[in-house]
Amino acid sequence: MIAIIKREIASFFSSPVGYLVIGVFLLVNGLFLWVFDGPFNILYAGFADLASLFQLSPWILVFLIPAVSMRSFSEEKRSGTLELLLTKPISTSGLVLAKYLGIILLLLISLLPTFLYLLSLESLKIDTDLLDYGSIFGSYLGLFFLMAAFASIGVLASSLTSNQIVAFLFGVIGCFGGYFGIQGLAESIGSGAGLLNDLGMQWRYEDLGRGVIDLKHLLYFLAFILLFLTATEMALVRGRKQIQPKRFIRPAGLFVALVAVSFILPSKRFDLTADKRYSLNEATVKLLEKAEAPVNVTVFLEGEFPSEFRKLQAETKQLLQGFKSVNRRVTFEFVNVLEDEENPEQVQQQLANMGILPARATVRQGGQTNQVLVYPWALANYQDKTVAVPLLKNQLGTAMEERVLNSIQNLEYAFADGFSKVIEPKKRKVAVLKGNGQLDDAYIADFFRSLRDYYFIAEFTLDSVATNPSGTLSKLNEFDLLVSAKPTQRFNTAEKYILDQYQMQGGKSLWLVDAITMETDSLQLTGEYLATPKDLNLTDFFFKYGVRINPNVVQDVYSAPLVLATGDGQESQYERYPWFYTPLTASGREHPITTNIEAVKFQYASGIDTLDNGIDKTILLSSSPLSALRGVPNLIRLEEIEGFLKTVGEGPDPARYNAGEVPMAVLLEGEFSSVFKNRQKPYSYSGHKDEGVASKMVVVSDGDLIKNELQGNRPLELGYDRLTGNFYGNKEFLLNTVNYLLDDSGLINIRSKEIALAFLDQQKITRDATQWQALNILLPLTLLGLIGFGYRWSRRRKYAR
Question: Are 110 and 26 in contact (CB under 8 A)?
Fold first, then answer.
């Protein structure tokens, strides 16, 4: 067998055709990956990986492998040497295997020069980033199995004819049909083609090609190779003598066993990526297992768009495939929502009515750049319920590559969150506290409308405390969470006692509280406003639990602008000015609530002190290091804009902005002690607890953080600033907060998942693009030449003796 393998390699390299075939393979790869402006160009991808190589390779291998394998048996038949080979002391199956292994070795030799691309990526990536060699290894492993499967097709094609050209055409047709044809047929059939799609190799290769090794995929490829090698043996035997069925019972049985195992056994996946980005969270797995009906996902990421969105598309497809491996009821398709539409404006309006808005992206075509609309959204349908899943995070001041990275990091949570809305019935209850001057319904409408997708929402007042305190507490205990949005009226002792005992009995609460009285509308009307302390009679309440909201106001150099009108009448214009009283903050702390969220906008927030009392405290949001604190009473004037402009232009004075990171939102977790422990109670309650059970509370020092703007009488989306057009992260922060306080499934913890992608250094590419293009085309060809020269030299030296 070894002699035949050596003979196969020698036959290939002794002819210029062999070098030509491999040279064309390397040249085409180099041109498409490094030179041609298109979807496979690595330099324009922005990410330092070889995903483009593994996406392009199947197209090239469909032609390369038949070209390499077409000689294996067809040439033997044409020259009459096949009969001579069959008289050798080797079985027909051994002959087939030897020819096959010879082709595999030739293909590995042709693949060897592509490792030079890794050296280019190491040089072109940002210095602090690391290449994901685990993913790359998995991708090369997937490419090897694809090449092995194509080689088995090529060997069979060569055994069917004595004409090399016919063998090449048969091989191309077989490889193309096996890889693209089956999945294409399944997609054309649509629903009901799940089994047909599973028989195809394309999705399995794509799975392996991203560094996810699934034993089912390996068994599938082994079964595929065994089938075609057995068919090759049958084709050779048929030409010489009558086929004996017994000879093929064992390989046929092995083939059936491998196929059965690959379909029946549960998926066993090994995620080789460095950040384990394709390993599903246990909470996601449990959620998917609850789906007892089909979960149909339609993703709008299809069509021509920039490389960043292709990356998002690929990661989304891989994630959905992971979902499908957990529950076969998950199906998905990618569509171009605007393709073949006679009235795209109408479609865009319909999507906008569903809250699905496009993103603008820049596409390079023929050296020109064009703006296109991309809909990075998905629709998930389960039974009679449908939910929109946003795939792209909206983040201010970040490049598209970074937005896509953050979006990929958030993908699993985005889908799991969407699935939970349609798969799991609502069971938790949220009380919206009223009666103490909290915000009117119109100003909290958007947040609670969104929250209604997860929980039951109802208003709750403490009006009956005076007449029926025990009954009031009993009704409040029916709720799992209490939300108090910007109270403006004092809480009396009886009301505080109800709230305290609710917390002691395991109730969760979210407090958005102003420690000062300050209104922007009044400031803009008069040009000044006297900020004064606001006494809600809650100081001892929060102090006992471990926090104190100070009567001051935070100034932060990193802040949202204040928009003011200048000019009169029709000539008036809106101008943005720095306004340090509206801090923007996105915590760098790794917590499920704040990980990967957009900057949250505060207005006239106060600093929060944390006290040591045994309760676990997590500062969720704080100001930037360039902050200052102003006590109240204090007259705040619009004239301060002049000083803020100077600070922005000349840089902040460290002596003035020296308060550091001031906490403005704090999470408290643990077993709280009652505010009324060792104190006189306002009324007798038989169920009183001095020490509470485990509970949670979040305190935010800005009541307006939950407040949405109005356009006429219509509430706008929370976090949207209609004067600047910016979207802030207030809504996401509050939704994450409520989900964290109430989540017992662990879904919110998915947000802590971190994904690290290596980026290309665009400065290096701009400066040295031509150099790297030349190197990645010429060096692989040079290496091929050296391999050929070394082979010929060794043979010449061997036979010269």
Answer: yes
Q: Residue 197 pLDDT > 80, yes or no?
A: no
Q: Which amino acid is at 529?
A: Y
Q: Cα dist. 347→238, 339, 350, 372 in Å?
A: 60, 10, 5, 15
The answer for residues whose C-beta is within 8 angstroms of residue 488's C-beta and 6 or more apart is 436, 437, 438, 514, 534, 536
DSSP state of 612: -
Decide: 136 and 49 in contact? Cβ < 8 Å. Answer: yes
Positive or negative: CA dihedral 537, 540, 542, 547:
positive
Closest CA to 395 of 576, 584, 583: 584
- Can you read off the two tokens belonging to residue 203? 């999705």
Q: Does residue 323 or residue 191 have the better pLDDT?
A: 323
C-alpha to C-alpha distances, 112 to 6, 28, 607, 705, nearest whole angstrom = 19, 15, 61, 57
Average model confidence (pLDDT) across the chain: 86
| 414 closest CA partner among 391, 396, 431 | 391
Q: Give the CA count within 13 Å in the CB-facing half-sphere of 352.
A: 8
What pLDDT does residue 571 have?
A: 62
The dihedral through the CA atoms of 313, 316, 320, 325 has a sign that is positive
**600-601 vs 627-631, strand pairing mode:** unpaired
Cα 427 to Cα 421, 458, 478, 746, distances in angstroms: 11, 13, 11, 16
Residue 302, C-beta contacts closer than 8 angstroms, at least 6 positions apart: 313, 334, 335, 336, 339
pTM, full prediction = 0.80
Taking CA atoms, 733 is separated from 295, 356, 586, 598, 700, in Å, by: 28, 20, 9, 8, 11
Tokens 């001051």 locate to 552
Tokens of 649: 């232009």
The segment with the largest mean pLDDT, out of 289-303, 343-357, 474-488, is 474-488
**Residue 186 neighbours by CB distance under 10 Å:** 20
3-state DSSP call for residue 300?
Answer: coil
240, 210, 298, 269: which is closest to 82 by C-alpha?
A: 240
Residue 69 CB coordination number (10 Å) = 32
Note the pLDDT of residue 3: 74
Give the C-alpha separation, 37 to 552, whole Å: 57
Q: Could you identify the residue written with the tokens 């890889």?
A: 179
Backbone angles phi, psi at 559, to 5 degrees: -145, 165
User: Model confidence over 436-464: pLDDT tens digits?
Assistant: 999 999 999 999 999 998 899 999 999 99
Integer Cα distance of 269 and 275 in angstroms: 15
* C-beta pairs of 335-339 under 8 Å, 24+ apart in sequence: 335/298, 335/299, 335/300, 335/302, 336/300, 336/302, 336/303, 337/300, 337/375, 338/303, 338/373, 338/375, 339/302, 339/303
Per-residue confidence at 426, pLDDT binned at 50, 70, 90?
Answer: confident
pLDDT at 73 over 90: no
Task: Note the pLDDT of residue 723.
Answer: 87
Give the span between the Cα atoms of 418 and 455, in whole angstroms. 14
Q: Let me know: does 396 contact 726? Beta carbons within 8 Å.
A: yes
d(CA 584, CA 600): 5
Q: Where are the alpha helices (DSSP H) in 651-761?
A: 730-742
For residue 633, say if its preceding peptide bond is cis, omega within 30 degrees of 0: yes
Q: CA-CA distance, 212 to 209, in Å (whole number)?
A: 7
pLDDT tens digits, 135-185:
888 889 999 999 999 999 999 999 888 898 999 999 999 999 888 887 777
Total residue count of the chain as it appears in this document: 801
Handedness of CA 374, 377, 381, 387 (dihedral sign): negative
Q: Tell me the C-alpha distance between 637 and 639, whole Å.
A: 5
Nearest to 498 by CA among 468, 522, 518: 468
